[in-house]
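testing teh design pipeline on a random one, pls ignore if ur not involved
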């Protein structure tokens, strides 16, 4: 099993929609990640060419007065039901955090359906 950043996140979209949106349409919620030519990536755990877990990843510049801060966004960590309990979501999240750190991001924002997964890892809820 390997965990990698994919420049084209659309390969992870079927798994993410299957796990998170039974009716699909996750791509329309995140056009900055999944639209053709968008700036987002995906972090995926894959084995034998199959994506077992993944999340969306996006870097944005936040402008506050004269300051410009690079921030990261991690979204929709999803793991195939048959693969849960192997630590794949944690591995994907750790790789996403490392990637954002390498890009100089000062912090990460999450969008998530299950905040308890993230609060156990030190994240704090700031909105809903």
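output:
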């Amino acid at each position: 099993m390997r965990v990698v950043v994919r420049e084209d996140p659309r390969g992870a979209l079927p798994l993410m929609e299957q796990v998170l949106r039974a009716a699909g349409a996750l791509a329309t919620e995140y056009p900055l990640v999944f639209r053709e030519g968008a700036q987002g990536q995906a972090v995926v755990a894959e084995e034998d060419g199959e994506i077992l877990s993944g999340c969306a990843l996006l870097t944005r510049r936040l402008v506050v007065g004269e300051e410009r801060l690079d921030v990261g966004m991690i979204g929709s960590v999803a793991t195939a039901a048959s693969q849960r309990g192997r630590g794949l979501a944690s591995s994907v999240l750790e790789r996403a955090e490392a990637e954002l750190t390498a890009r100089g991001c000062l912090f990460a924002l999450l969008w998530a359906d299950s905040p308890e997964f993230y609060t156990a890892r030190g994240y704090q809820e700031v909105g809903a």
